[in-house]
Amino acid sequence: MDKDHRYSLIRPYYTRNEIKTFSDLFNTLTRTLVAKDLGKEKGRFKELVDNPNEFTYSELRKLGKNCDLDMNEISMLIANEHDNDRPKQFKYKDVKMMFEEGKIKSLEDIFIYVHKSTVAQDLGKKRDTLNRLINHPDRFTFRDIRSLAELCGLTLTEMLTLIKTQLEK
Question: Are 53 and 143 in contact (CB under 8 A)?
Fold first, then answer.
């Protein structure tokens, strides 16, 4: 099935700096179209658009692919609009240092230097839930990805790279 022609308009608008925030996408795309393509019920999709931090990595990756935007670009659109969450305090200094040393190459490598139970608590998750997310990182919400990046002192781009590497394993 071919994707709707309106998706092909997003990349040119983005490169012309006419799309700067997540909600700008919906000046070109209808919410109904995107909800259907992501397999979401319209009411739930409206909630997600109002709070895109709750989209999962895989949902954002699919939307980005349809729009010809990479994960960093789609993530920055969300961050530009919805950056009102209180940032997490940079706590895992060992992770930042070992990332810079090239010892951390994927998401799971983080947990060599910080206990899963600590991360789970800081993210407000149960340890079992965190374990499932590590095994299926495409299920992380954007909020959790951003929070983990902040706790590790990593940029959103760096964290997305770790997740992508984990998914490729």
Answer: yes
Model's pTM, two decimal places? 0.83
Question: Angle between the 57-67 and 31-38 helix axes, to the nearest 10 degrees?
Answer: 120
94 touches 113 (CB < 8 A): yes
Cβ contacts of 78 within 8 Å, gap of 6 or more: 22, 52, 53, 55, 60, 142
Domain ranges of the chain: 5-81, 93-168
Q: How far apart are CA 73 and CA 3, in angstroms?
A: 20
Q: Are 37 and 31 in contact (CB under 8 A)?
A: no
pLDDT above 60: residue 1 = no
Whether pLDDT at 130 is above 70: yes
Question: How far is residue 28's CA from residue 98's CA, in Å, rounded to a whole number?
Answer: 42
